[in-house]
Amino acid sequence: MARMDLRVRAWGWMTRRQASVAARSEEDVIAMQRRGMPESRVTDLIFGKTPPGVAVTNRSVPGPDGDIPVRVYRPVRSAAGPRPLVVYYHGGGFVFGYLRMGDWLCGQVASRVGAVVVSVDYRLAPVHRFPAAVEDSYAALSWVAANSAGEVGAGGPLGVMGESAGGTLSAVMCLLARERGGPAISHQALIYPATDMTAERENVQMPFLSSDEMAAYRRMYLGPDGDPANPWASPLLAKDQEGLPPALIQVAETACGTPPPCARRGCRYALPSTSACRTAS
Question: Confidence band (pLDDT; 50, 70, 90) for 36?
């Protein structure tokens, strides 16, 4: 098993120095969202930077409630043919997260795979509750797929990728694409996705996520009317996984070596739909 990156531990330390999201009101959270994440050497160290040889552009695409900001990562080197296309969704519990968080991962995929990567800045709860993030994510996916060979400059196979909440959205995109007849997704990469929001609460402590915090994120995302059993929120509960694209699912362990609930449910989701389930600690 891979050891937990020191940057993840540092991020956990930084977030623990602040009041837990579980103890904050929705008004506090909205104020935090407006402040954003300051750019500094520390955040550069934790989140990483776009590697050399990758061009980055910002633009917007049409969404169900206005334009959706996206960031496009393109390899600078020329390609002999069409490039693969990957649509990326950031993590943050459906409450936090912004485009900057994906610079290192998206840039690495663009550089090493030679793919065009499009990162989606979907709407966040609690101002925009479920299913706003899902609809934004699907709208962006559909636009990117329709314009792959043109404005996006890819033209190759289409995949989805995301971590945590973004991993959940990536899995849900595959379900929606199947239900709605497209786009055609060739693969999905899910990094510690939350696949079942109906599961009973368990006591777990991870570097920057506790049981109380997971419950707070779920409450803010779903609100009083959201159904945690809806497959758009809990893709593990979809009627079946037939016809879904192959998946790579990477899950995590706690510091003491036991898999947290999201890891166990991630592996349960992996059973019918993947060729690999890798555990990192």
Answer: confident
